[in-house]
Specification:
Layout lengths: L2 H17 L2 H22 L13 H10 L2 H20 L5 H27 L4 H16 L9 E8 L9 E8 L2 E9 L3 H18 L5 H15 L6 E9 L4 E7 L5 E4 L4 E4 L17 E5 L5 E5 L1 H4 L6 H15 L7 H8 L7 E8 L1
Antiparallel strand pairs: 1-10, 2-3, 3-4, 4-5, 5-8, 6-7, 6-9, 9-10
Helix pairs in contact: 2-3, 2-4, 3-4, 3-5, 4-5, 6-7, 10-11
């Protein structure tokens, strides 16, 4: 094969791959729709007189939903040009001219929304689907399988029933040790959700790779390097030996973990202290150490579980404990989710992990 033929083949393959791009096909179909509507709006003869220039709003709004920010910018300009073309063929009243000005303002609003979505990393429908898929996978893989004699369950409920939560649960099991971190990222909605996804990957790499005493300091340094505006997070970290039940709990500006003793049937707060992650460097995180016996359980949760308007933290913890006892969380069949759903509705994201020995 000659060099020219090889180059032609490469260009042909590149064109085919580019045409398979879903966004390219979408913008071509939207462009064709825009041209057809422009012709109909500009004709204004016979029955076509009922087709207004305002019909070009349809491809504009479809583009806002389906296209990514870069493609959308050029498409908005294209639609604006088509509006001018259609309007130039018509005799416009003052009302028609005002309507066209409104369409231009709508175009600028669509551009602004596209730029904001781009900042959040979710520009275009395909990227939103990708983020939804990532959040689903994150929720499904929270707690690894437990050995005989142990049980564990977790649940994350985003605020308002959305798919994006700023609360996350990351857990790994290395040999006979389970490590779990429950994190509450500042903010809500998509912005907090994208940060939570980033932190889940980073923290998943740290869990099991460092001694328990070094995990939260390393997580704190990671957040400081991100230089996010309002880029802080609270966390509670559990490391437990699945052989003898010995555990360490450390918190970073987070509500205390709760430990239930089978011998007394009472819940105790695990006393540990540490600052919020991502604010100051070179800090220590005190550990609460103990041993889980048969029938004992430890519960980690975020502040959305225990905080509500007009309810203080202690009262919220009391409600959580009462609900946990009533539902008898067993780590099977979605007990953690039922526990969260059994609590009062909250305007904040909620996450909970229960680990017990039987």
């Amino acid at each position: 094969m000659s060099s020219h033929a090889f180059a032609d083949r490469l260009r042909s393959n590149a064109f085919r791959r580019r045409f398979r791009d879903p966004e390219l096909r979408t913008v071509l179909w939207l462009g064709l729709l825009t041209i057809v509507l422009t012709i109909l709006a500009a004709a204004q003869t016979g029955w076509l007189q009922v087709v207004p220039v305002a019909v070009l709003t349809v491809p504009l709004l479809l583009g806002a939903v389906l296209l990514g920010p870069r493609t959308l910018g050029w498409f908005v300009v294209f639609v604006m040009v088509m509006i001018v073309v259609a309007a130039s063929r018509l005799t416009l009243s003052d009302r028609d001219a005002a309507a066209i000005v409104v369409h231009f303002l709508l175009g600028f609003i669509v551009l602004y929304v596209a730029m904001k979505r781009s900042d959040l990393g979710v520009g275009g429908l395909s990227n939103e689907r990708m983020l939804l898929d990532l959040t689903t996978r994150l929720d499904q893989g929270a707690i690894p399988p437990m050995p005989p004699g142990w049980l564990a369950d977790s649940a994350v409920l985003p605020a308002g029933g959305t798919k994006f939560a700023g609360d996350l649960v990351v857990a790994v099991r290395v040999d006979n040790r389970l490590e779990v971190v429950v994190v509450d990222v500042s903010g809500k909605g998509v912005r907090a959700g994208t940060r939570a996804l980033q932190l889940s990957g980073a923290f998943g790499g740290l869990l099991g790779a460092l001694p328990p005493s070094e995990f939260l300091p390393a997580a704190n340094r990671y957040l400081l390097r991100q230089d996010w505006q309002e880029g802080f997070a609270t966390a509670v970290y559990l490391s437990i030996d699945l052989g003898n039940g010995a555990y360490e709990i450390r918190t970073a500006g987070h509500p205390p973990a709760l430990v239930r003793r089978a011998s007394t049937g009472r819940w105790e707060e695990a006393e540990s202290n540490g600052p919020v992650l991502g604010l100051i460097d070179d800090v220590d995180f005190d550990a609460c150490e103990g041993v889980l016996g048969v029938g004992d359980m430890v519960m980690l949760y975020t502040d959305g579980v225990v905080e509500a308007r007009g309810v203080d933290l202690e009262h919220g913890i009391g409600n959580l404990v009462a609900t946990a006892d009533h539902l008898a969380v067993t780590g099977r069949g979605g007990g953690a989710r039922r526990l969260l759903e059994g609590l009062s509705a909250s305007s904040d994201d909620r996450a909970l992990v229960a680990v017990g020995r039987r």
